[in-house]
Amino acid sequence: MNKIDKHIINALQDGFPICDAPYRQVAAQLGLTEQDLITRLQALLDNGTLTRFGPLYNAEQMGGALTLAAVKAPKERYDEITEIINAFTEVAHNYARSHELNMWFVIATETPEQIQQTISAIERQTGLTVYNMPKNKEYFINLKLEA
Amino acid sequence: MLDETDRKIIQATQAGLPLTPQPYQAIAEQLGLPADDVMMRLSAMQNSGIIRRIGAVPNHYKLGYRFNGMTVWNVPDEFIDDLGQKVGQFEFVSHCYHRPRHPPEWPYNLFAMVHGKSQEAVDKQIQLISDLLGNYNLGCDVLYSTKILKKTGFRTSA
Prior knowledge:
By secondary structure, chain A is of the alpha+beta class. Chain A is built from five helices and six strands. Chain A has a four-stranded antiparallel sheet. The two termini of chain B are 14 Å apart.
């Protein structure tokens, strides 16, 4: 990742225009050609520097539901538990964390009822207790990270 | 409210925008809609907050942010809204939430995600939060993410 890539990552975390030729518009601001921007973006996605590029939807605003949940996965079953939990399409993110509660994942569903159904299914398939921690309130969310 | 066409657009774009010179045109063609309609609907969804933003989501680790801590705090419920607002104002906090406790093993109700390129940087951030909470800090812990096991973003089949 070089300086140009960093500029691209920083600029594209601020938003992306909705217009006929948005890459051309952003490329001009960055002093790049449209094709160069597209090629670099593709490379950043391919090598995993960017996990996504596009609209970030707010699941709750769409009538869906979201929660953060955690389990205590025994060390010897960690890979197996990871596989079971990741297999749920409702699980959007899953992180290993340093704590007795060592696996933390976000469940996103189309309806609030499906959250509880997913949790029950995960408990059934893993035999573990799922600690459900839905947000009571969001104080702040900043999606930008300086490259 | 979202209608059927909005949902089609959401479905077509939730994995990402096409990397072609006219991405909205490409989506419109795929869905058999006028490009202007797709752009107007995306703008409307952005204005109403259904789309938080259109843009890039970096992998923290790849940008050098190897120390990603979920700091969790036990603060009195009657003060949490005020404290949460203040903690959220630190520029190094990316997310700040009030979540339910699960006593006795999980007494924490305030969550703040912090990100740093070194342990020292994150330690300093945690100290700043701790200083701000002062006597309202009844206990805390920091859970570092050691691995991303999955990160697909939200998918809907609607």
